[in-house]
Structure formats: C-alpha cells, structure tokens
Design brief:
The chain is mainly α and 139 residues long. The chain has a two-stranded antiparallel sheet. α1 runs antiparallel to α2, α2 packs across α3 and α2 crosses α4. The relative contact order is 0.14. The model has no long low-confidence stretch (mean pLDDT 85).
C-alpha cells in the first residue's frame, strides 16, 4: 500500500520488486543474526548462507506482488519460502545479487549506489584533483 516498488529486468525478464515492510526488515535481521552462528571457516556453508539470505530478501520483496497473499503468519511464511526456493532454482546468481541490492536500496537499508560517476585510475605519483600525490595506500 505505502511501499515503494521498482521494475527489475534481467535477461529480457521483468518482475516488480517492493520495499520491505517494517516487519519483514525485523524478520530479515533476525535471520541474519541466526546466520552469524555459522562457522566462518566453512567457506561452502558461508557462501550458501549468503545466497540463501539474498534469495530470502528477494522473496520477501516479491511476496508483495502476489495476487493471493496469505493473511495467516504461517501461510505468509510458506509463501515466502516457496518464492525463495523459486528464486534459488530459477534465477542466476547475478540476478539474485542485483535484486538483493535493489531491494535493500528501495528499503533504505543501504544508500543508493551511484553508477554515473566515472572512475579514473591514476598511477602512483600522479597528482589528483585535490593536489595530493596518489599512492598505493589511497587506492
């Protein structure tokens, strides 16, 4: 109702992403807190958890676009879980990551990413616009 939305396109497919509700933000933060318990030495588990967390965030967003949204909390969770599985099974990792970023931006969880700025690489020893020499430490 009050949530912002944005059309997301990837490889000629389009879906509408929605800002997360306040309750969804809390649920997502609780989920992330659970993930903190994963052994960080297990790289495979860490990568898998990161992908699942991104797919969950995207699924929470996509849930707002469902025509027949459940009202009961357990049914809502089942719909979101089904959407999460659909995202993980049918979306490429690049689309999941990009949609995750868009949802977080829509939801005010991160600052908008500026893509219009041109990055100019300078060699060490060159002088920047501020007049300071560029060194390897400033890259």
């Amino acid at each position: 109702m009050f949530l912002k939305s944005e059309l997301f396109s990837h490889n000629d497919s389009e879906v509408t992403l929605y800002e997360l509700s306040a309750l969804q933000r809390i649920e997502h933060l609780e989920y992330l807190a659970e993930l903190e318990r994963i052994d960080s030495d297990d790289m495979s588990a860490t990568i898998g958890a990161t992908i699942r967390a991104s797919a969950l965030l995207v699924a929470m967003s996509l849930w707002h676009g469902l025509e027949n949204k459940a009202q009961c909390l357990s049914e809502v969770q089942a719909q979101v879980t089904s959407l999460q599985e659909e995202v993980m099974n049918h979306w490429p990792l690049t689309a999941i990551a990009e949609a995750d970023l868009r949802v977080k931006t829509l939801s005010g969880m991160i600052a908008p990413v500026e893509t219009s700025e041109t990055i100019v690489e300078m060699a060490p020893g060159e002088v920047s616009e501020t007049g300071e020499p560029v060194s390897a430490e400033k890259y």
